[in-house]
Amino acid sequence: MNLLLLTHYYPPEGGAAQHRWSTLVGHLVSEGDTVRVVTPAPHYPLGHLLPGHEHLRSGTTHEGPHGETVHRVAFRPYDSSVRSRMLDEATVARDAVRTVRRGFDGWRPDVVVATVPSLPMAWAGARAARMFGVPFVLDLRDAWPDLIFFAQEWDLPTSRVRSRARAAVRVALNGVGSALTRQQRRADAVVATTESFAEVLRSRSVGSVHVVRNAAHEVPGYAQHVVHRESGPLHVLYAGTIGRAHGLGTAVRAAALARERGVDVRLRFLGAGADLGHLRRLAEELRAPVEFLDPVPRRLMGPHYAWADTALVSLRPWEALELAVPSKLYELMGLGLHVSAVVSGEAGQIVEQTGAGTLTAPGDVDQLARAWASLHADRSLLDVSDRARDWAREHADATRLGEAYRTLLQSMRARV
């Protein structure tokens, strides 16, 4: 099978989206499939070409880590604003279409896949599939277009947009959301990562919807977490993208509140993202017991997980995020590390049903501070049920998920 993948995010960049597709591509290539990837030069999360990767600049073609062929396309440098990120995504999508139009020296795909969160990539993938006359699979990592309607909050708290301008933005976002829903209906198949969002898509007359969850990826050299029994500070780790949708200000405020109440909590952020600057300022203002470290490769995550008593998984209290399950949750469940889950919806149900950790409501600072106080006082609460690891093995095993995705792609190929 020949697969053409269009994605805004791909290794050597780090991140959940990059790791998801690197793993899936690795599985496909190992099964004898040929994969070509159209993606921008690596520029996430800095917004410019990553240092040391000048050989992967726009216009280059190279072999990827699994034997896939990677075509690098143009991007637009961006800053922390939503507008600049959207312009970057549009630039990448346009150049992806130009690259596909130029052709691949006679090579033709059997299936085209485009993956969102980059919304313009859905348009680019549909165009590419039409050029080749092959099936189109739209891969949705999050609840799009539902998340679009919260976009006006993405630049808060610094945004001071007037109400008339907000109304104009709302009209534009409604148009984008409607266009993406039409694209979902036209795709030959749509892949969602949660059962709850798949049901929403089906209710909107999206015909062929399949669920392929994110995987509980292994951490090299770190097989299973060991609970710390000694007294001392409660170590809370957040490792991952520090984005607007994560609502991590709740954790900073909870850590400061817990400290005020005499609870010795240490919160460590390990990552980068659009909300990092705001969190740094908030932590300094509150004198919160928080430290910020740069992201590290997965192979170096072991010591950080060993340091942690509990790991934070957090989302904002947005209705659309009730349809999401952060990929980090599966990883933590697979390791047996206690989760401080600040989530609701399907993610909250998984935590409750499997005993993976402590569940608190998104945005509730007092509830999270009290939960950490309980964990600090009684370390036995950090023990995680075996159900959590069993669930991760059954529902989020990387090999099983790779085979499920390959089976779907083969069924699309058979339609031609």
Quick overview:
With 416 residues, this protein is of the alpha/beta class. It is 41% helix and 16% strand.
What does this structure look like?
With 416 residues, the chain is α/β, with parallel strands linked by helices. Helix content is 41%, strand content 16%. The protein has 13 helices and 14 strands. The chain has helices at 16-30, 82-102, 119-132, 163-186, 195-203, 249-260, 276-286, 302-307, 327-335, 345-354, 365-377, 386-395, 398-415, and strands at 2-6, 34-40, 61-63, 69-73, 111-116, 136-140, 189-192, 209-211, 234-239, 265-270, 290-293, 310-314, 339-342, 357-360. The strands form two sheets. An eight-stranded mixed beta sheet has the order 3-4-2-1-5-6-7-8, with helices on both faces. It has a six-stranded parallel beta sheet with strand order 11-10-9-12-13-14, with helices on both faces. The chain is globular.
What are the defining features of this structure?
41% helix; globular; eight-stranded mixed beta sheet; 416 residues; six-stranded parallel beta sheet; alpha/beta
